[in-house]
Amino acid sequence: MLTSARQTLRTPFARLARRLHSTANPPRVLVTGSLGQLGTTMVNTLRAKFGSENIIASDIKKPSIEQRNTGPFVYADVLNYRALEQIVVDYGIDWVVHFSAILSAAGERNPSLGLNVNITGFQNVLDLAKAHNLRLLSPSTMGAFGPTTPKDSTPDLTIMRPNTIYGITKVHMELLGEYYQEKFQVDFRSLRYPGIISADSPPGGGTTDYAVDIFHAALKHNSYESFLDAGTRLPMAYIDDCIVGTMQLLEAPQEALTQRVYNVHACDFSPQELAGEIRRQHSDAFEIAYRPDFRQAIADTWPRTMADEAARRDWGWNPVFGTADIVRVMLDKLGPVYAATASPATTAEPLVEELPAAVVAS
Ligand SMILES: NC(=O)c1ccc[n+]([C@@H]2O[C@H](COP(=O)([O-])OP(=O)(O)OC[C@H]3O[C@@H](n4cnc5c(N)ncnc54)[C@H](O)[C@@H]3O)[C@@H](O)[C@H]2O)c1
């Protein structure tokens, strides 16, 4: 399992797409929130597979020149149903990948924004899917579980009483999607992601963002102050596994799906274990301190591990990156960026500037 992860450590998007099947009749896909942590890689992977012209990226932020040059990009506020509908009609959209959301920590900071984007925004894309016969993939999260959920090998079907705005809106999304599928035959699909780790795009305001920040800090200062406690074990996945899995669910035949929402688990670790692996692979001198903030209370309500047999059985979920692989690929990708900025002979800017301590995903 980990051997194949080694082979994909420097995977460009085309190779990521090759882990999936190709298709003769490509669908036209609208991706909402495409400039976020996951959207950026998802759009590149979809374009490598289905052709750039068939993937309509959208967000309310301005894309970089590079992002604009890789294919169509449109402004789309998911709170505006009519504007979304115009895009669906103008571009002949078949599938929507709905990535616009306000994540856990950001939702606790601004609950009304979280309710608005996660509930009204989802309602809009779901009604569009019903009106225009679209396939709709909208991810959920381990944050949909709560303090009374069993924490180990958390099953797909269990107690779900989250106590964050993010979690509440994601349970609402799961139930409403299932309702529309049952009542109106809307082809709704969802998967509960763990914390996602990526080097190419910064995380957007969640509780697992420490697991991205730590690499930037290690390479810059050889030290890190974690906002989660040493022993806080959470489920995690590297972005390549996340995107391959999302593509697999997106493309799975309807008949293969025995449920509409699936847990996906790749690996799990605590800040202390991650720091130990960074020490082993990067520098013995790497230091970590723990100063838990409000995100600790969120993390304390989430699973330590999730059971994902249904995803493996129904549509082939098969993550290949373990903890050591993730550390290796993050150091491989970010190391040269910080090495270049440290050299007085170069004027190159770092890919990711000092990440704001308060900003972090899941
Ligand atoms: N990243 C993770 O670790 C993680 C874990 C679990 C679940 N998820 C889920 O995956 C999906 C993508 O997450 P992400 O990490 O890329 O999030 P992100 O915060 O990085 O990106 C979300 C994007 O949504 C956009 N957005 C916000 N308001 C909008 C609006 N009104 N209209 C249109 N776009 C709007 C933002 O501009 C941003 O680009 C979300 O549904 C999230 O809940 C992510």
TrEMBL record:
GO molecular function, one term: L-threonine 3-dehydrogenase activity
InterPro entries to which the protein is assigned, alphabetical: Epimerase_deHydtase, NAD(P)-bd_dom_sf, NAD(P)_epim/dehydratase
Catalyzed reactions per annotation: L-threonine + NAD(+) = (2S)-2-amino-3-oxobutanoate + NADH + H(+)
Pfam families recorded: Epimerase (PF01370)
Taxonomic placement: Eukaryota, Fungi, Fungi incertae sedis, Zoopagomycota, Kickxellomycotina
EC number: 1.1.1.103
GO biological process: L-threonine catabolic process
Role, per record: Catalyzes the NAD(+)-dependent oxidation of L-threonine to 2-amino-3-ketobutyrate, mediating L-threonine catabolism.
Protein name (Swiss-Prot/TrEMBL): L-threonine 3-dehydrogenase, mitochondrial
Organism: Coemansia aciculifera
Boundaries of every NAD-dependent epimerase/dehydratase domain copy: 29-264
Signal peptide interval: none
